[in-house]
Amino acid sequence: STKEALKVIISGAPASGKGTQCELIAQKFGLVHISAGDLLRAEVSSGTEIGIKAKEFMSAGRLVPDEVVTSMVIARLSREDAKEKGWLLDGYPRSSAQAQGLEKMKIKPDIYIVLDVPDEILINRCVGRRLDPMTGKIYHVKNFPPETEEIKARLVTRPDDTKEKVKSRLEIHKQNAEAISSTYASIMKKIDGNCSKEVVFKEINSMLSQIQNTKAKEMEPV
Ligand code: AP5
To answer: Where would you find the membrane-spanning parts of this chain (predicted)?
Structure first.
C-alpha cells in the first residue's frame, strides 16, 4: 500500500453537500469514495440481509444499528483499491461508537472535513433533491436541474427526503456530531457549505493539495 495515499473523512448534516463534493474530490484526487448511505441503499435495493435489516431505519430517517453498518464499511475500507489509491469516507462515523471503532482498528484519517450549512437551507436542499438511479448522480430541482428530458424522466426522490423526516434526521445529526468531532478535534476543518459547489470545492481542494504535498515530502529520501 502507498503511504502517501490520502485518507479523508467528510462529515456534515443531511444535505450539507457531502455527496456532491465527494464526486468532485474523487475525480480530482483519484480517491475511492466510500459512502455509508450509498452502500446501504445498494444493499436495500438488492434485498440482501444487510438491506433487509437497514431498510426500515433508513426510510424512517433513523440511524441503522452500528453492528449492521460497521462491518460493511470496514470491509470496503480494507479492499486493495482503497489502500492503494486512498479513501474518502462519507457518512461514517456517525456515532461515537463508530468513531471509536475506527480508532481501535487504527484507521485514522489525515483530515476531518465538516460542511457547515444552516438548517433552513438543509431542509430545502433535501426536499428538492433528486437522484439518477442509472448514474448515481445527485440533482436538485432548482439548484442543479437535470441536463436532459430523458434524465429528468427517470429521476427518483429518496423516501427519507420529506420535510418531516429531514427535521428528525437533523436532530439525530446534532445529537451525535459533538461526540464524533471530539475524536477528530486536532484534524478538524470546518468549511462554509452554504456557497456554490464550486466555491466549496475550491476550499477543499486547497486543503487536500496541501496535505498531499506534505505527505509527498515526507516520502522523499533524506
Ligand atoms: P446518507 O445517505 O449518508 O444521508 P445524509 O447524511 O443524510 O446525507 P445526504 O445524502 O442526505 O446529503 P449530502 O450531504 O450527501 O448532500 P448532497 O450532496 O446529496 O444516509 C442516509 C441514511 O442511511 C441515514 O439516515 C441512516 O439511516 C443510514 N446511514 C448512513 N450512514 C450511517 C451510519 N454511519 N450509521 C448508521 N446509519 C447510517 O446534496 C443535497 C442536495 O443539495 C442535492 O439536491 C444537491 O444537488 C444540493 N446541493 C449540494 N451542494 C449544494 C450547494 N453548494 N449549493 C446548492 N445546492 C447544493
So the answer is: none
